[in-house]
Amino acid sequence: MNDPVKTMKQEVGRVAAARVQSDSIVGLGSGSTAAYAIEYIGDRLSKGEIKNIVGVPTSFQAEVLAKKFKIPLVTLDAIDHIDIAIDGADEVDPQKNLIKGGGAAHTREKVVDSLANEFIVVVDDGKLVERLGSTFLLPVEVIPMAVAPVMRSLEKLGGKPELRMGVKKAGPVVTDQGNLVIDVKFDHIDNPGEMEKTINNFPGVLENGLFVGIADIVLVGAIKDGKPEIREF
Ligand code: 5RP
């Protein structure tokens, strides 16, 4: 049976992948929506619609998918820029600031997405919020020995932190870098730029999921009358 949510995510991924041009270095995002973009970039490459593409993966997941869809990969020491990056998000505010990290990949995602000349975000309309933190907990990647003091600092900041636990895996989620993730509930994030810097200043924090002023284009998918509809936000 046709799953409209899946079709909508595929369509957003396809529309984003259609913006990739030949001879470009492409940041490959993580999550279920970005996965479709990677698939469609591979599809366009195999059909000869685009040529000479190299990808920079934002996670182990993106790397595996890029290999599956035969997109050549490079590391950041082999290039001096990224032309376009396509990545998902967990929340998007009216200023195109984001919360990311639902897949615990936000550290590498921020490195890659912020280097891109054009960063395209692919989401469904359920991710649009008036204020960041309204629906999603803020992910914070922390080195394992610093979990307790960082949790205390996050509490002092007004947050309710919890260590992210694995699914079908005993114990906590371990990131691609071998670290842990603390998810923090804030009643409101009034100043995402300040919050991003404050949290990253806690010793032991590697990176948090606030992406402020990085996104250029947000492609939003919705289901209207059972059909996917994509608009630019
Ligand atoms: C991973 C991410 C993802 O991009 C984000 O969680 C969105 O994923 P999905 O498209 O599956 O909803 O930030 O760290």
Overview of this structure, please?
The protein is an alpha/beta fold and 233 residues long. It has two domains: 4-128 and 213-232, 3-Layer(aba) Sandwich (Rossmann fold), CATH 3.40.50.1360; 138-206, ACT domain (Alpha-Beta Plaits), CATH 3.30.70. The chain is 29% helix and 27% strand. It has six helices and 13 strands. It has helices at residues 4-17, 32-46, 60-68, 106-115, 147-156, 192-200, and strands spanning 25-28, 54-57, 82-87, 91-92, 98-99, 116-124, 138-142, 160-163, 180-185, 205-208, 210-211, 217-224, 227-232. The strands form three sheets. The chain has a six-stranded mixed beta sheet with strand order 2-1-3-6-12-13. Helix 2 runs parallel beside helix 3 (60-68). The two termini are 30 Å apart. The mean pLDDT is 96. Ribulose-5-phosphate binds next to helix 2 and helix 4.
Task: Map the helices and strands.
Blueprint: H1 4-17, E1 25-28, H2 32-46, E2 54-57, H3 60-68, E3 82-87, E4 91-92, E5 98-99, H4 106-115, E6 116-124, E7 138-142, H5 147-156, E8 160-163, E9 180-185, H6 192-200, E10 205-208, E11 210-211, E12 217-224, E13 227-232
Parallel strand pairs: 1-2, 1-3, 3-6, 6-12
Antiparallel strand pairs: 4-5, 5-11, 7-9, 7-10, 8-9, 12-13
This protein binds ribulose-5-phosphate (5RP).
